[in-house]
């Protein structure tokens, strides 16, 4: 198994939160519309499918979806919600599903769950091995926020509310990072870290090239807003010749 955090049963039970912005209907509509177009009438594989936040509405658009998921508790939640979506337990660097597909996708910064460059390179190779000729690999990821780091500072806050404080600590040498979450739990706060490796868009392009994939497009979001130097995230598409 690769070096990656594995979501626990407690995290899986609390993952689906309708109040979380990532579950916003408008966001999921834009995400699945983009992915359905990229699938071009074929089938899809979601790496790190989780509890089906994207896979279930994508299937409702008529795209057959298969998943790979490292966390058994997350896969159990998906099976409870959508037992007809096949899920294989394993890591996204080596785990295979059957057949060739027109789309492989990896959303919500999950490429960073692989905390070494070698593992991220292997993920691209695994994605390419699932694709038929002409198939696409789509990755949604943040742009590393290093421009927000003053000299000598290693932490960047991303959420500060009465109920939650979140900040990332970043190591520019190794590109290893940790998201620190302090969540109010009654009169106290519950601490939960998440480890990841941040990766630049240009670095992903090189990983794609090593996997035999060609760049097709890069956007700032699922609505195809042009990607610029100020974009905090990107949706990138590579195609198998």
From TrEMBL:
Protein keywords: Methyltransferase, Transferase
Domain Methyltransferase: 45-135
Pfam families: Methyltransf_25
GO molecular function: methyltransferase activity
GO terms of biological process kind: methylation
CDD domains in alphabetical order: AdoMet_MTases
Transferase listed as a keyword: yes
UniProt protein name: Type 11 methyltransferase
